[in-house]
Design brief:
By secondary structure, the chain is an all-beta fold. The protein contains no helices and four strands. The protein is elongated.
Amino acid sequence: MTTTCPSCAWPIAELSTSAHRTSEGVVDYRQCVCGTWLVLVNGRTVSSVATCARTTDR
């Protein structure tokens, strides 16, 4: 199990969680303090998405 955010190494256990039961097990969504979204299935990180700032200048 990954215990830290892959982007900034913040401990995953310290992040708030939103967990749901599915046919695959427990799916857990967490947003890190750096803005990265983490998706865990049964406690294992399966995906992470880093967010980036958008500018409104065009």
